[in-house]
Amino acid sequence: MEQLRISTNAQDLDVPLIHRFLSEESAWAQGIPIETVHTSIRHSLNFGGFLGASRVAYARVVSDRATFAYLVDVFVLKEHRAKGYSRALVGAVIAHPQLQGLRRFMLATSDAHGLYAKFGFAPSSRPQTLMEKYVPDAYLQGKKKPL
Ligand SMILES: CC(C)(COP(=O)(O)OP(=O)(O)OC[C@H]1O[C@@H](n2cnc3c(N)ncnc32)[C@H](O)[C@@H]1OP(=O)(O)O)[C@@H](O)C(=O)NCCC(=O)NCCS
Fold first, then answer.
1. Which atom belonging to ligand 1 lies closest to the Cα atom of 77?
2. Residue 52 Cα distances to 12, 63, 82, angstroms
3. 0.90 exceeded by the pTM?
4. Residue 143 — very low, low, confident or very high, per pLDDT cuts 50/70/90?
5. Which residue's CA is minimally distant from atom 20 of ligand 1?
6. Of ligand 1's atoms, which has the minimum distance to the CA of residue 73?
7. Under a CB-based contact definition with an 8 Å cutoff, are residues 19 and 55 in contact?
8. 105-137 confidence digits (pLDDT tens)
């Protein structure tokens, strides 16, 4: 099986492809504007997954690169799934030299717990201590038709 090549150079990313996946296919970023994707990439550590010249996978990490990190926007294009590519991608994230020694590394997932568990992620041991300001339909606000 062809090995996934991973680049952390944001110049290598296909932003329209990332935007298309996030805005149309993802469960968490429906309707995200492309300018928001550009801004998020600019301020993140990015991990692009390549097969030859084709971009097939992506993940990014928001972090101070010293104490805390948050993994988001992990995906593998549909036709390339179930070949271990997300495992390779998350492995590269975990091994990144600027993401070592963190006190807390977080992520949110609705059904891929098994993927992240392989890298030591577990449900919060003290969920009662965590708070969030959560706007699940942030990018759809203002776009909804009135009832
Ligand atoms: C989730 C996703 C990234 C997995 O990518 P993939 O390349 O098909 O996964 P892999 O082939 O690397 O397999 C990952 C491993 O995690 C496991 N796993 C756990 N939950 C999973 C899930 N929801 N989807 C796929 N694999 C999952 C697999 O069984 C596999 O285990 P194995 O190594 O023992 O075989 C991919 O299905 C995807 O892009 N989905 C849509 C976007 C998404 O949901 N992203 C995750 C947001 S948290």
1. 39
2. 12, 29, 18
3. yes
4. confident
5. 112
6. 47
7. no
8. 999 999 999 999 999 999 999 999 999 999 999
Pocket residues: Cβ below 6 A from ligand 1: 26, 74-76, 81-87, 109, 111-112, 114-115
CA pair distance 8, 18, nearest whole angstrom: 15
Mention every residue, 6+ apart, whose C-beta is less than 8 A from residue 125: none
Residue keyed to tokens 């971009």: 55
